[in-house]
Amino acid sequence: VLDSRYGMYVWPCAVVLAQYLWAHRRSLPGKRVLEIGAGVSLPGVVAARCGAQVILSDSEELPQCLQSCRSSCLMNRLPHVPVLGLTWGRVSPELLSLAPIDIILGSDLFFDPKDFEDILTTIYFLLEKNPHAQFWTTYQVRSADWSIEALLYKWNLKSIHVPLHSFGADKEHLASSSMPGRHTIEMMIISLAQSEGT
């Protein structure tokens, strides 16, 4: 659902990804980080506060989400963090002119199957430009029928599952959701399946 209100909340996946960043905070100073679909930007803000050079982005079609990114930066004393309009699956001048990056962040991007390929197309483009970069992502399992495995294979990407207990995110107060029913949050790191020279 392309609705700007979805970018106005801190969803459980963002909290889990922020916990992962906090657990790895000593590796973040100086890293170049791009958060896509940032919304209120909790993971990006945590990365910036830990010393990473962060760029926040959300859809250029959702100006309210872009404003939400800017507001989060101002509230967290990060007025110089750039905010870009980047729409998944669209090659734009902003996407083409991005500086090199080390880490791409995305929380709860995989919520609508019609967007999965556009998201992974954008990730593939970024990883091709930055072959040693990684995409750190958390997602909520909403349907057993939804999978990105075939798309990962199609786009020559591989994923590594990161157990939540390995970074202290398996606590009920952290990864729980107030939405009805039981919702499982997962984390994975996506990278190119084959880098050049291997």
Automatic annotation (TrEMBL):
Keywords: Chromatin regulator, Cytoplasm, Developmental protein, Methyltransferase, Nucleus, S-adenosyl-L-methionine, Transferase. Interacts with HSPA5, HSP90B1, TUBULIN, UGGT1 and UGGT2. Interacts with TET3. Interacts with STPG4. One of its GO terms (biological process) is chromatin organization. This is Histone-arginine methyltransferase METTL23. Its main location: cytoplasm. Belongs to the methyltransferase superfamily. METTL23 family. One of its GO terms (cellular component) is cytoplasm. One of its GO terms (molecular function) is protein-arginine omega-N asymmetric methyltransferase activity. Gene3D superfamilies: Vaccinia Virus protein VP39. It comes from the Eukaryota. It catalyses: L-arginyl-[protein] + 2 S-adenosyl-L-methionine = N(omega),N(omega)-dimethyl-L-arginyl-[protein] + 2 S-adenosyl-L-homocysteine + 2 H(+). It is found in: Cytoplasm; Nucleus. It holds the Pfam family Methyltransf_16. It comes from Promerops cafer. The keyword Cytoplasm applies. Histone methyltransferase that dimethylates histone H3 at 'Arg-17', forming asymmetric dimethylarginine (H3R17me2a), leading to activate transcription via chromatin remodeling. Maternal factor involved in epigenetic chromatin reprogramming of the paternal genome in the zygote: mediates H3R17me2a, promoting histone H3.3 incorporation in the male pronucleus, leading to TET3 recruitment and subsequent DNA demethylation.
